[in-house]
Amino acid sequence: MNKKKIAFGVSAFALAATVAGAGLAAADPSGAPTYRQLSGVGSDTTQDVMNGMAAAITVGGQRVIGSYDSTGSANITTKDPANGNCTMARPNGSGAGRSALLTSLQAGNGCLDFARSSSLNLAAAAPGLTYVPFAVDGVTYAITPGSAIPRKLSLTDLKAIYHCDPNYVGSGPNYAMTVYLPQAGSGTRSFWESQMGITDADVVAGIYPCIKDKKGTTPVQEHDGRLLDDKSIVPFSIAQYQSQSSQTIADLRGRAILGTVDGTAPTVLNSGFGVKRDVYNVIPTNKVATAPWSTVFVGANSEICKQTSVINTYGFAASPNCGDTTKQTP
After folding, report:
1. Which residue, 32, 52, 43, 41, is CA-closest to 249?
2. Mapping DSSP to helix (H, G, I), strand (E, B) and coil, where does residue 200 land?
3. Which of 19, 142, 258, 270 suits a disulfide with 266, CB 3.0-4.6 Å?
């Protein structure tokens, strides 16, 4: 596809509302029991659907999943303090969730039992981890209704934007377009970088100077459209957008609207969208055959895989590989 220049006026645009969920309450486990057998942290993208799973799934009449949101109070306590100290800083994002799970497993303290992840990371881990898919999400770009950025772009166009091609974004230091990525450690950030053909190392090193992961000094929280103004663009989970739109979860869209990629509009059940991904629960490989991990996460007949209506309610499509355990770290 031929490159097309995206034109902007030279005047400054008004900034959108405050970024990244400041002051929002976290939907951490509520109701009995206070502390659950399976405590998990991590991805912002899947925190709400896993909260739905936590409410829907019982084993022996007891809720077993304790899923802690990526933002909220500074600290969380995942297990009964009478049995040890499981108070920790709240992990924000897939990478932070994986790291926190590994820290807990290496310490053998039982504080964390799984992690939520919206990207696949099969880098070596000790002990080994298994990424168990359960749903499919589409990812597209978000802009504002008044944006000069077209509502329909090709994947080629998006790659040019995220490579800071001056035909698209203008030239520094005053770029015509503000190109956002979510905060470091975000699974959506990692996934979007892979789709754009860029590496996080190069982003961090400033190879793509038009890309920002902060608005001012505040990290960009994924799936929060309130940071957008009329000259900015950010990746956005379709499932998150749809469930925010339906008021299933807190609506943080602000003025954000979703863009069409390669002629395919974002839809509620997005397994047919071109830019899509499996989303995962990460469990210790040595627990794959052990209850309650095996009961809840593993196999097509696992408790999570039975919850198609919960998956759909939160804007995801059920994964055809739900419960698969072949994706393991070395």
Report:
1. 52
2. helix
3. 258
Chain centre to alpha carbon of residue 124: 22
How confident is the model at residue 321, as a pLDDT? 96
Burial class of residue 35, CB neighbours in 10 A (0-12, 13-18, 19+): middle
Asked if omega into 173 is within 30° of 0 (cis), the reply is: yes
**Mean pLDDT value across residues 292-307:** 98
Going by C-alpha positions, the residue among 274, 280, 317, 276 that lies closest to residue 121 is 280
DSSP-derived 3-state class of residue 77:
strand
Q: Are the C-beta atoms of 96 and 219 separated by less than 8 Å?
A: no
Token pair of 18, please?
A: 């405050």
Q: Which of 193, 196, 258, 254 is nearest to 228 (CA)?
A: 254
**What token pair was written down for 48?**
């709400």
Q: What percent of the chain has pLDDT over 70?
A: 90
At 291, is the pLDDT very low, low, confident or very high (cuts 50, 70, 90)? very high
By the 8 A CB rule, do 91 and 18 touch? no
Among 259, 325, 315, residue whose Cα is nearest residue 135: 315
Give the separation between CA 170 and CA 161, rounded to whole angstroms: 10
What is the model's pLDDT at position 205? Answer: 97
Question: Residue 254 burial by CB count (10 A; 0-12/13-18/19+): exposed, middle or buried?
Answer: middle
Structural domains in the chain plus CATH codes: 38-132+285-318 (no CATH), 137-272 (3.40.190.10)
Q: How many CB atoms lie within 10 A of CB 23?
A: 7
Secondary structure (3-state) at 322: coil
pLDDT digits (tens, 9 = 90+) for 13-48: 222 333 333 333 337 998 899 999 999 999 999 999
Task: Say if strands 214-215 and 218-219 run parallel, antiparallel, or are unpaired.
Answer: antiparallel
SS3 call for 125 = coil
